[in-house]
């Protein structure tokens, strides 16, 4: 096993579009766009961890060439603004000069994210010989109602800056945005490409990997290359022979560790952190609400709690499980349970 680069997903990270695994049609279309030297705004849609941002980065790098660094920007719509950035956005608000209409004399403000993170970049002229700048916005759907303000920027500065918007849920993107973009549906890697890549990595890392194990990895990772490589690297800690039994054992152990960590965070009273981890666990292991409650119960029983504390916790989970039968939103039911666990920790 190589120790030069400890993280394999970085070691085997593609550096060119043609090295992207299992997305042939998508890559071919992007390579055509690079040859044409022009494209409309783009909307990348696909599951979390499928490779959308990596593809966007490699595409902009190959499209802009030597002008890439000065004409490209990546922003995360779900990263909260700092207090300084909010103050800056507020200070740049202005009063309407219109004397008639509903906006007469009112204070005009641009959504803070757009005002601070986006507008300064799209307003600046293109540097070098690039045809236009490129702005990549990850988790674009988080903008919600502020997408209307973003639409106006696309219309005003479209000739100076093209946008690549990235989302996991196209249903949360407003129609005016969708109509202004060319849509790319980024799917999971096909099994043949997935298998070929993992065998190549196994050969370079001196691992013994059977077709059965590769099939299991494909199912567990949902065809997501980075997740499969992470699992493969973690499994090889116990040896260079990766069997189906050791893989399943590791996945189950890791799952239990994650749920145990979730309980510990709840007992620390950190609700927001617990909810974030809970959503990651459900996404990674495809748990429904009742399955999640069941695994949570199994881990709670193994904790060194008093009889009184354990009975109280079991009653809390039982009540949440009962409510989840009729509840439409499992995330709300589980979040409610986590909040009760956080409050319970204060009385322990």
Helix segment tally: 16
State the fourth-level CATH superfamily of the domain at 23-80 and 112-185. P-loop containing nucleotide triphosphate hydrolases
Number of strands: 9
Shape, per Cα inertia axes: globular
Oligomer: single chain
- Give, in spatial order, the strands making up the sheet with the most strands: 2-5-6-1-7
Unreliable spans: none
Output mean pLDDT: 84
Secondary structure class reads: alpha/beta
Radius of gyration: 24 Å
N- to C-terminal separation?
Answer: 46 Å
CATH architecture of the domain at 23-80 and 112-185: 3-Layer(aba) Sandwich
Q: What sequence of helices (H) and strands (E) makes up the elements?
A: HHEHHEHEEHEHEHEHEHHEHHHHH
Which properties best describe this structure?
single chain, 348 residues, alpha/beta, Rossmann fold, Zinc Finger, Delta Prime, domain 3, 5-stranded parallel β-sheet, two-stranded antiparallel sheet, 16 helices, 9 strands, globular
List the helices and strands and how they pair.
Blueprint: H1 8-11, H2 24-36, E1 41-45, H3 52-64, H4 68-71, E2 72-76, H5 83-91, E3 94-95, E4 107-108, H6 112-123, E5 133-138, H7 147-157, E6 161-167, H8 175-178, E7 181-185, H9 191-204, E8 208-209, H10 211-221, H11 225-235, E9 241-242, H12 244-267, H13 271-285, H14 289-301, H15 307-326, H16 330-347
Parallel strand pairs: 1-6, 1-7, 2-5, 5-6, 8-9
Antiparallel strand pairs: 3-4
Structure description:
The chain is an alpha/beta fold and 348 residues long. Among the domains are: 23-80 and 112-185, Rossmann fold, CATH 3.40.50; 253-347, Up-down Bundle (Zinc Finger, Delta Prime, domain 3). Helix content is 56%, strand content 10%. It has 16 helices and nine strands. The protein has helices at 8-11, 24-36, 52-64, 68-71, 83-91, 112-123, 147-157, 175-178, 191-204, 211-221, 225-235, 244-267, 271-285, 289-301, 307-326, 330-347, and strands spanning 41-45, 72-76, 94-95, 107-108, 133-138, 161-167, 181-185, 208-209, 241-242. The strands form three sheets. It has a five-stranded parallel beta sheet, sandwiched between helices. Helix 7 (147-157) links the parallel strand 5 (133-138) and strand 6 (161-167). Helix 11 packs across helix 12. The longest helix is centred in the C-terminal third of the chain and has 24 residues, at 244-267. The chain is globular. The two termini are 46 Å apart. The mean pLDDT is 84.
